[in-house]
Amino acid sequence: MYKHFANSLILIFALLIFVSGSFFLLSCGKKQMKKVSDESMIAQQAFQLAETLRHAYVKNDRATLQENSTKDGYRELIGALKRFDEAELTFTPRWVEIEDSMVYLNVAWKGTWIVAGKKFEERGMAIFVLEENPLKLSRVLRANPFRQPE
To answer: Which residues 6+ apart lie within 8 Å of 73 measured at CB?
Structure first.
């Protein structure tokens, strides 16, 4: 009787290994592409817009700044711009909040400006308010990197 019980246990154990191995092979057999969420696509678009604005600002490319801003956003941006001879600016996105048609991109920034031979360094945290489709800059809240050097 003991021998019959041991054989049954071995058979059950082998069956469990076979079934679990089959599930493992079947689950790993297909490559499934996960669909990128709408929120993720909006966040990527927001990051890309921030880089476009950063690059245009450093190059003093007002046409690119205008086409990537709303009418009110561009007016605010141009009103804040200070003259500089040279600038380096880096953005580090921290998080994105999406509320209805508004996107709030929180960015840590660090900049170096040269004005008339003097070097200015600043850093801060800004919130870019983005709207429309495709996204455009509507406002800059908190420490606006485009107001520098002050």
So the answer is: 136, 137, 138, 139
- Residue environment code for 88-112, b if the CB has 16+ CB neighbours within 10 A, otherwise e: ebebeeeebeeeeeebbbbbebebb
Task: Write the pLDDT tens digit of every residue in 9-63.
Answer: 565 655 556 555 556 655 655 567 778 788 999 999 999 999 999 999 999 999 9
The closest alpha carbon to 127, from 148, 108, 150, belongs to 108
pTM above 0.85, yes or no: no
CB–CB of 134/147 below 8 Å?
A: no
CATH number for the domain running over 38-147: 3.10.450.50
How is the chain split into domains, by residue range?
Answer: 38-147
Residue 81 has pLDDT above 80, yes or no: yes
Strand locations in 51-100, DSSP E? 86-99
Q: Which residue has the tokens 């058979």?
A: 11
Tell which residue, 85, 86, 67, has the closest CA to residue 77: 67
